Amino acid sequence: MAGLFFHPLVLLLSGSHETITAVASQMDYELFNLLITIREEEAIEAIRRGWSDVLIFEPPNPQHHSGCLSLFLQEQGDALPVILITSPQDLFPECPWLRVYEVLHKPINRLDLSARLKSVVTLRQLEKQLADQPLGPRGAARVLLVEDSPLQRKILAGYLAGEGIEVITAADGAEALRIAEQQRPDLILLDVVLPGMDGFEVCRHLKENTGLKDIPVVFITSRQGREEKIRGLECGADDFLIKPVDKRELLIRTHSLIRRKQLTDTLVNQASRDPLTGLFNRRQLALDLQRELSRAKRYSTPLALIMADVDFFKNYNDTNGHLAGDEVLRQLAGLFVSSIRDMDTVYRYGGEEFIILLPQTDPAGAVTVAEKLRRKVEKHSFPHGEKQPGGRLTISLGVAVYPDHARDAEGLILAADRAMYRAKKEGRNRYATATSPG
Questions:
Q1: What are the φ/ψ torsions at residue 162 (nearest 5 degrees)?
Q2: Residue 51 CA neighbour count, 13 Å, CB half
Q3: At CA 348, angle to CA 371 and CA 365, rounded to 5?
Q4: Alpha-carbon distances of 5 from 30, 81, 153, 185, 426, rounded to whole Å
Q5: CA-to-CA distance for 9 and 128, rounded, in angstroms?
Q6: Could you give the CA distance from residue 166 to residue 160 in angstroms, rounded to a whole number?
Q7: Distance between CA 431 and CA 346 in Å, rounded?
Q8: Which of these, 292, 287, 280, 429, lies nearest to 354 by C-alpha position?
Q9: Rounded Cα distance, 120 and 239, in Å
Q10: Cβ neighbours for 72, distance < 8 A, ≥ 6 positions apart
């Protein structure tokens, strides 16, 4: 039932017959609806009535517009995203009163039009989805610029740095992949022509990497052919910038893609966090454990996993109530996080169970961490802790290490779980180490 699907309405405001014909003929009507006007007053009425989801606007040249649209959009604030139409040979139009999400160059083709609309609509939907959940403070956005020309690197890096963006540079594909793995940038600007592997091959490697595949990639190229753009999109790129790169177009596209990445990360983070403790949840553990195991196997390094469980937690809840029990879990989460290295991660596994993942940690190191956690919990003054058996709230822990005790994710969790229950059987408030298989 196709009528049930949402089709964003695109409002086109242009006085150019050529532009109107191009947009109308190149629009993908399976995805979008189109409303055309040549008058600012009609555009304002459509926006006021809430008909449009995105505005494609071609400013008059010279800019003898009535001014009513600029005043209206300023009053509306961020109500409507705008795609600005311009010509590569023209000066970039000055429209400070527009919230420009994207730039569309003439001559307009179906590929570019569809890419711009999809980008804008995706960003707008993310903004609406997170409208009631303000983003927390973030540091400077980080962009990896991959360009073999020292002059071009200097020029483009200067544009970005002037906007408060942290810029990391690479001169070839191999260096770019190393830096991307280490720095995890918010956006990658990637030259197509590079020494060694070209930009297309670099992009394929990025998109095949689980930890890097969600980073937006924009190709920078002097090639304007349709085939190159299709090839780039097929290998996972998000967009193209054509040399010589216009500063304002670069900044508009950079800010939009970074914004989209920030919003997407927020949604992913919400899906991967336990709402009570703020720790990563079981779903995220499955992803991280698989990644860390692959890394441990690749570099022949150990990987430790500690499972911790609150002793007599049912007794605590029955005696003091579930709200008090929730507060204990929150305090435990804080104690665990404050007691580990930056490279380690704590997860709420379920109920009163926690898992701590410790990369590059052998059995001796894992045991040291387990005992540190046990002592810290034992000495902490929890609300109503004196009502617990033994007069204090404690935990039991199980330690398992790859490759000593298991060689896969399921086996490692099972080994730690069995060790933890052995610690409970032996008297609680202690840790136990898994036994070697076989």
A1: -65, -15
A2: 15
A3: 30
A4: 10, 21, 44, 35, 60
A5: 16
A6: 8
A7: 17
A8: 280
A9: 12
A10: 44, 47, 48
**In which order are the strands placed within the sheet that holds 303-310?**
345-350, 353-359, 303-310, 395-402, 431-433
Residue type, 185: P
C-alpha 187/C-alpha 112 separation (Å) is 20
| Separation CA 324–CA 314 (nearest Å) | 12
| Dihedral-angle region of residue 274 (phi above 0 means left; psi in -120 to 50 means alpha; beta otherwise) | beta
Q: Two tokens at 83?
A: 């795609």
Quick one: which of 23, 31, 10, 224 has its CA closest to 113? 23
Return d(Cα 176, Cα 145) in angstroms, integer. 8
Q: Among all chains, which residue has been given the structure tokens 């070209």? A: 198
- Digit-by-digit pLDDT tens for the chain (438 residues) are 333 346 889 999 999 999 999 999 999 998 899 999 999 899 999 988 888 889 999 987 544 445 677 778 777 766 688 898 987 655 555 666 667 888 888 889 888 898 889 888 888 888 877 776 655 556 789 999 999 999 999 999 999 999 999 999 999 999 999 999 999 999 999 999 899 999 999 999 999 887 898 899 999 887 666 777 788 888 888 888 888 888 888 999 899 899 888 888 888 778 888 989 999 999 899 989 998 999 999 999 999 999 999 999 999 999 999 999 999 999 999 999 999 998 999 999 999 999 999 999 999 999 999 999 999 999 999 999 999 998 999 999 999 999 999 999 999 999 999 999 999 999 999 999 999 876
Q: Is 199 in a helix, a strand, or coil?
A: helix
- The answer to whether 255 and 325 are in contact (CB under 8 A) is no
């508009």: which residue's tokens? 252
